[in-house]
C-alpha cells in the first residue's frame, strides 16, 4: 500500500494507519495496484493492492482455520475483544473521520457522526454477544428432553458500499463476530481506506489471526463470485444496488447459501396538510441532503398535499439555497461532492428529463466548482410520476416535489415501486398516522422525523430492497443457526 501526502496531511497519527493497514509482505500474488482519489479535489490518496480470486481464497482459508477456535470462545471473551475494538475506534475517531472525508467527500462533521455510529454498532453487539439464548421445549413423554441451541453460521463474506464505508463495516461484521463467525470484508473500491484503518485496529483489539480478513479490489465481480460460490463461505452480507444483489443471489442459489441484502431504495417523503410545515422542512433537509443525497434511505420523492404545497415548496427551496457546497474539510460545508462522474451524469440526466416533461427548477440545477464532482442542491416542482426522477433512485442532491390530493392517492403512489426500504411522512392526526404507517410497504417508516437509523433498531427493506435485517437483536439472528436437540432414553 502507498499512501500519499494528500491523505497523511489530515491525520494526527499517520504512522499508525500507514504501518498497520499494510498487509504482510509476500502475502500477495499480484503486483497490480489501483488508485483511490479525493472526489473533492481529484488528488491521489493511495494506491492499494488489486486483489483477485487467489487472494480471496487465501482469506477464506485463513477464516476457515480460525473459525472453530473463535466459535469456541465464550460469549464473554468475544464480547471483550469487540469492546476493545469499540474503544480503539473512539480513540482514533478523528483520524478515521478524516480518512472518510478524504476518500468519500462528505463533510467532516458528518464523517465524525458516522464513525460514532460505527462505534455504536460495536458496542451494541459486544453487549448482544452475551444474549444468545436457546430454549427448552415441553416433551410429549417423560423419557426425553427437547431443547434448542444456537450456533454460528460459519464464515461470512461481507461486501460494503462506498457511501457509508465506516458504519457499514461495523454494522455487518460486528454481529457476525459476536455470534462466533469469522469474516472476509470487501470494501467498495471508491472508499476502501477507512475500512483498511478499521481493519488495522482489529489487530490492536486482539482478534486472533484469521478472524477478520480484508480484501481490496478495484473490480468486485471476481471477488463477489468467489465469495458466493466458495462452499467454505456459509453466508453473504451485501449492501449495494438491487441489480448487483440479483446477481449475487443467483450465485448463492446453487448452495442455498444464507444471505442478508440491503439493496436499492426509492423513498417517499409525504407531507400531509395537518403537518407542522417547518418541522417537515427540517426533516426533508435531513432525509434528502445528508451525504449529498447519496444514502439508500434518502428521500427520493417528496409528496406534498395540495393545501400546503406552495407553502412547503417555498420554505423548502429557501432552506436548500442556504446549504453550502464544498470540500468536506471546510467547516462551512454542509453538502460535499458526488462520488464520481457517473453520479454527476445521472443527476444531469434526471434533471434534463424532468425539464423536458414540463418540470421547473426552483433552485440549483447545475454543476458547480472548478474542481471535484460538486452539484448544487436542487429542488424541482411541477413533477409527474412519469419522470425518471420519480421512477428511479437519483442518489444525489435532487428533490422533486409532487402534489397530491388525498391519503389513498399518495399511499398508492408511494407504494408503486419495486422498492420498499424506507419511507417518511409528516402528519399530526393520530388516526391518519397509524393508517399511513401501516399501509406503506416499507421496512422502515419515519413519522415526523427525517432520520431514524439506530443500532438498536432493525434496518432493512421489503420487496426488492433486500432480505434480512441489520442492527438490533434481530441482526444477530441472521448469523446464527438454530439446532434442535432431542435427548432420549432418560
From TrEMBL:
Top-level division of the source organism's lineage: Bacteria
The protein's Enzyme Commission number: 1.2.1.16, 1.2.1.20, 1.2.1.79
Output the Pfam families linked to this UniProt entry. Answer: Aldedh (PF00171)
PROSITE patterns for this protein = ALDEHYDE_DEHYDR_GLU
Q: Where is the Aldehyde dehydrogenase domain?
A: 32-485
Arranged from A to Z, the UniProt key words for this protein are: Oxidation, Oxidoreductase, Potassium
The EC class name is oxidoreductase
Q: Which residues form the active site?
A: 262
Which Gene3D superfamilies does this one have? Aldehyde Dehydrogenase, Chain A, domain 1, Aldehyde Dehydrogenase, Chain A, domain 2
Q: Name one GO molecular function term.
A: succinate-semialdehyde dehydrogenase (NADP+) activity
* SUPFAM superfamilies named among the record's database cross-references: ALDH-like
| Record GO biological process | gamma-aminobutyric acid catabolic process
Record family assignment: Belongs to the aldehyde dehydrogenase family.
Q: What NCBIfam families does the database record attribute to this sequence? A: SSADH
What is the protein name for this chain?
Succinate-semialdehyde dehydrogenase/glutarate-semialdehyde dehydrogenase
Q: What is the lineage of its organism?
A: Bacteria, Pseudomonadati, Pseudomonadota, Alphaproteobacteria, Hyphomicrobiales
Amino acid at each position: 500500500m502507498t499512501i500519499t501526502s494528500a491523505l497523511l496531511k489530515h491525520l494526527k497519527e499517520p504512522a499508525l494507519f500507514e504501518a498497520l493497514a499494510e498487509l504482510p509482505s509476500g502475502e500477495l500474488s499480484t503486483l497490480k495496484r489501483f488508485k483511490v482519489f479525493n472526489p473533492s479535489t481529484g488528488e491521489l490518496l493511495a494506491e492499494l493492492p488489486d486483489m483477485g480470486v487467489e487472494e480471496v481464497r487465501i482469506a477464506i482459508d485463513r477464516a476457515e482455520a480460525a473459525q472453530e477456535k473463535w466459535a469456541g470462545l465464550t460469549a464473554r471473551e468475544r464480547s471483550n475483544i469487540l469492546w476493545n475494538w469499540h474503544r480503539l475506534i473512539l480513540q482514533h475517531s478523528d483520524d478515521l473521520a478524516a480518512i472518510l472525508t478524504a476518500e468519500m467527500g462528505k463533510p467532516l462533521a458528518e464523517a465524525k457522526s458516522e464513525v460514532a455510529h460505527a462505534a455504536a454498532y460495536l458496542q451494541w453487539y459486544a453487549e448482544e454477544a452475551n444474549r444468545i439464548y436457546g430454549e427448552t421445549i415441553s416433551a410429549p413423554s417423560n423419557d426425553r428432553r427437547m431443547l434448542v441451541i444456537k450456533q454460528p453460521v460459519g464464515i461470512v463474506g461481507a461486501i460494503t458500499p462506498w457511501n457509508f464505508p465506516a458504519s457499514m463495516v461495523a454494522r455487518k461484521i460486528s454481529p457476525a463476530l459476536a455470534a462466533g463467525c469469522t469474516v472476509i470484508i470487501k470494501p467498495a473500491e471508491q472508499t476502501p481506506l477507512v475500512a483498511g484503518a478499521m481493519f488495522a485496529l482489529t489487530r490492536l483489539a486482539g482478534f486472533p489471526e484469521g478472524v477478520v480478513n480484508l480484501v481490496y479490489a478495484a473490480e468486485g465481480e471476481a471477488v463477489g463470485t468467489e465469495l458466493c460460490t466458495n462452499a467454505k463461505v456459509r453466508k453473504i452480507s451485501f449492501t449495494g444496488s438491487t441489480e448487483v444483489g440479483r446477481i449475487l443471489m443467483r450465485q448463492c442459489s446453487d448452495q442455498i447459501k444464507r444471505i442478508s441484502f440491503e439493496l436499492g431504495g426509492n423513498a417517499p417523503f409525504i407531507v400531509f396538510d395537518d403537518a407542522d410545515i417547518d418541522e417537515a422542512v427540517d426533516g426533508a433537509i435531513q432525509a434528502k441532503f445528508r451525504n449529498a443525497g447519496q444514502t439508500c434511505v434518502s428521500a427520493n420523492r417528496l409528496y406534498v398535499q395540495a393545501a400546503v404545497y406552495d407553502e412547503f415548496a417555498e420554505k423548502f427551496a429557501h432552506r436548500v439555497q442556504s446549504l453550502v457546497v464544498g470540500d468536506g474539510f471546510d467547516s462551512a460545508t454542509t453538502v460535499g461532492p458526488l462520488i464520481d462522474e457517473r453520479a454527476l451524469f445521472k443527476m444531469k440526466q434526471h434533471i434534463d428529463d424532468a425539464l423536458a416533461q414540463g418540470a421547473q427548477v426552483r433552485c440549483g440545477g447545475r454543476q458547480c466548482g472548478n474542481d471535484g464532482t460538486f452539484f448544487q442542491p436542487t429542488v424541482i416542482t411541477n413533477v409527474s410520476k412519469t419522470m425518471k426522477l420519480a421512477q428511479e433512485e437519483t442518489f444525489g442532491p435532487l428533490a422533486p416535489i409532487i402534489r397530491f390530493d388525498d391519503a389513498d392517492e399518495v399511499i398508492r403512489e408511494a407504494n408503486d415501486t419495486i422498492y420498499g426500504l424506507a419511507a417518511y411522512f409528516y402528519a399530526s392526526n393520530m388516526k391518519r398516522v397509524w393508517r399511513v404507517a401501516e399501509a406503506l410497504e416499507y421496512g422502515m417508516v419515519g413519522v415526523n422525523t427525517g432520520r431514524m437509523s439506530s443500532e438498536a433498531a432493525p434496518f432493512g427493506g421489503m420487496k426488492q430492497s433486500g432480505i434480512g435485517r441489520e442492527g438490533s437483536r434481530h441482526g444477530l439472528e441472521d448469523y446464527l443457526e438454530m439446532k434442535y436437540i432431542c435427548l432420549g432414553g432418560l
